[in-house]
Structure formats: C-alpha cells, structure tokens
Amino acid sequence: MFPKSLSALSLAVLSALSNIVSAQTSLPPASTLTQITADIGPNPNNVGMFVYRPATVSQNPALIVAIHFCTGSAQAYFTGTQYAQLSEQHGFIVIYPDAPREGKCFDVHSTETLTHNGGGDSQGIASMVQFAIDNYGVDASKVFVTGTSSGAMMTNVMAGSYPDLFAAASIYSGVPFGCFAGTSEWNTQCAEGQLIKSAEEWGDEVRAAFPGYTGARPKMMIWHGTIDETLLYPNFGEEIKEWTNVLDVSQTPTTTTENDPESGYTKTTYGDVVVGYSAENVGHTVPVHADIDLAWFGIA
C-alpha cells in the first residue's frame, strides 16, 4: 500500500515505472539459461521454454531453436551442445524447449502437432519463436531449428507444420515428418525403418500440414548413422525423399563427397536446399556438428 502523502503525480510515475519493469521481465538475463514463465501464447501441452542470451546480443539477432532427445531436457541439451558457447561469438539467441511429459519425448505423432496451428507440442514451440521475435528483437528471417533423436523428429515436425517460421533446419538422427503419425507415442514400424513411401507420398504428408501454404520453406540438413539401432538408417533415405520432393529438387545428388566433414562421413547435396550426411559405423545418435550447422544457417 502506498503512503497517503504520495501525490497523484508520484503514483502515476510509480505506475509507469512498474509497467516498464513488468515489460522487461520477459527478457532473460544475458549469459544465463533462463526459464520463461510469462504467457507466450498458445501452448496447449505446456512445453517448457528456456532461453540463452549471450553477453553481447547482435542487433536484430538470429534465433536457433535447439530441441533435446528423449530422456533429455533443455538443460541437458544446453550443456551437451555448443550452441550457447557459439552464441557468445556470433550474438544469436538460443531457445531450448523442454518436453512436458514423463520420458521427456516430444509429441511428434498427434494430428494436432502435425497441423499448422492445430495444437500439440509444435504449437507451443511456434509460440516461443513468435514470443522471441516480439520481445527480443529477433530477425524473423533468421530463425532456425535443430535437434537430436526425438528433437530431430520434432525438428522435422516444426519444418513441416510451421514452414513460415524457419529459414533452415539441421536434423540429427530422426525420421521423416509424419512417420510417427497415429494415436501411439511410439511407432515401431517407422523406428525400424520399415515405413517406406514414395517421395510424393512423403511430400504430401508435409503439404497436408499447412493446406494452401505457398510461401518459402526451410532448407534441410539431415544427419544419420548407418548402424543406428533406435531409429534405423532407412529413415535417412526416406527423409531425403520427403524433403527433396517438398523443396522440388531431384533425388539424384548434385554432389557427393567422401570423408566430409570427417573420415567415414559422406556428404550429398541436392540443389542448394537439401544436404545429407551419412555417417558410416555411427549409431544413435550422430554427434552435433554445431559449426557446420551455423554455416548452414548463414550465421558463421
């Protein structure tokens, strides 16, 4: 309660200052992983939002959404990847979504999450992106998404359900958009690489997520290990088929480079919009190559 001696003008000034402070509480402190508890917009499954801002943020910074694996967390992906450290060099902001359910896997199967503005985890993450654009000065043309395992699957979901938000994606050991579609959180047929479709069929899965959308779609970089025993290697080929179809480029590689970026990896490119990295004798999951991600995103 204010003391009676305060004038109406003083009350007005205090009220204005209070509003300014309240408006700034949504901005996380620099160089700290911070959970955002403000109302970020539609988030039907209550996906957690954690943000990292470097000590020096670029003007109109880029944004990377970095999505963790099953049994993981925003904190685990923050400490286990290099995006935060690299943001200190390049001034971008990182959002680390946190899965809201036991087991810490993301919803990559429901009709809601596989539909633009349909609900599910994808709508919560999309709201985080829009919140960052509105509150942190993020350049809407420089928003990128990446993830590992369940996070890789969620990356495909975000690229398919919200192509209007992302310029590029990098996917570590995932499955195609729509591969897990159904009522169950786990799809054995897909995980074991037995769900085989034509490129057009996969492409139709993506196009159906956002009917009538004719705008730009994110370019896609896809990583997979040849001896992955969790999400088996055939999923790599199915992802290539899906995204070359969606992005309207040939399934025949434009270039093929052995031992790139390191021994045992084979890089294939499809036009300038799809890149595949096949990692020989690598299991689940392919290690994150953050420097290459940043180059793909156009940040480095």
Automatic annotation (TrEMBL):
InterPro entries in the cross-refs: AB_hydrolase_fold, Esterase_phb, Plant_Biomass_Hydrol_Est
Record SUPFAM superfamilies: alpha/beta-Hydrolases
Subcellular location, record wording: Secreted
GO CC annotations on file: extracellular region
EC top class named in words: hydrolase
GO molecular function: carboxylic ester hydrolase activity
Main location: secreted
Annotated signal sequence range: 1-23
Any one Pfam family match given in the protein's UniProt record, by short name: Esterase_PHB
Lineage: superkingdom: Eukaryota
Alphabetically ordered keywords of this record: Carbohydrate metabolism, Glycoprotein, Hydrolase, Polysaccharide degradation, Secreted, Serine esterase, Signal
E.C. numbers: 3.1.1.-
GO term, biological process aspect, one: xylan catabolic process
Entry's family note: Belongs to the carbohydrate esterase 1 (CE1) family.
Job description of the protein: Esterase involved in the hydrolysis of xylan, a major structural heterogeneous polysaccharide found in plant biomass representing the second most abundant polysaccharide in the biosphere, after cellulose.
The name this protein goes by in its record: Carboxylic ester hydrolase
